[in-house]
Amino acid sequence: MNKLTFSKYSAVGFVSILFLLHIINTTVNPTWQPISEYALGEFGWLMNLAFILLGCSFAFSGMFLIQKFTNIGSKIGGILLLLASVGNFLAGFFNTDPITTSPENITVIGQIHSGAAGLLGLMIIATIFVTIQFYKQPSLKPFKISILLTTTLVWLAELILVGGMGYYLSKTNGMITEDTPIGWYGRIVIVLCAVWCYVCANNLQKANFQRT
């Protein structure tokens, strides 16, 4: 099985597990609690696995881009995906503190998780560099529309999340509470990131890179 297939399967695995957790773990309120909270419940190991799978999806796509293409844009995109994958791996091994934890009681492990989660932003930046390659590389041009649409959705969802956080958190002194209904915003962003990885890997395979 090659890197691109691994990337696709890992992305599907992440989304499938996340969907399952919304069914079997009803202690987390998806309207305001982030997905990291699933790692604290009875089925926490599933959320840990999901984070690791998403990290694998980023990593395999990143490695492929670095190895297959020689231009600087592809390599920057690949490196950013690899760095983002590290964030997911760390999130999978270091659980978050409960979202209601006061700042003075946040643990070192919780701080590591929060910092790791922030690396997802590098993946979102990577989508720009990679999408450009679908317009520059002759073999990728036939697939430029699907990757552009997916990248647009990722960025639109991210901007809505940032705007929503800015609006609601300004009313709660920066604390995520039941009065900050941004849980679904974050879920949509991370699911779209997984979808983007699937679409990217699938398009690269269609462009006759299957055996790499």
Automatic annotation (TrEMBL):
Q: Which UniProt keywords apply?
A: Membrane, Transmembrane, Transmembrane helix
Matching entries from InterPro entries are given as: DUF998
Q: Is the keyword Membrane in the record?
A: yes
Q: Which Pfam families match?
A: DUF998
| Superkingdom | Bacteria
Q: Where are the transmembrane segments?
A: 45-66, 78-96, 116-135, 147-170, 182-201
- Name of the featured protein: DUF998 domain-containing protein
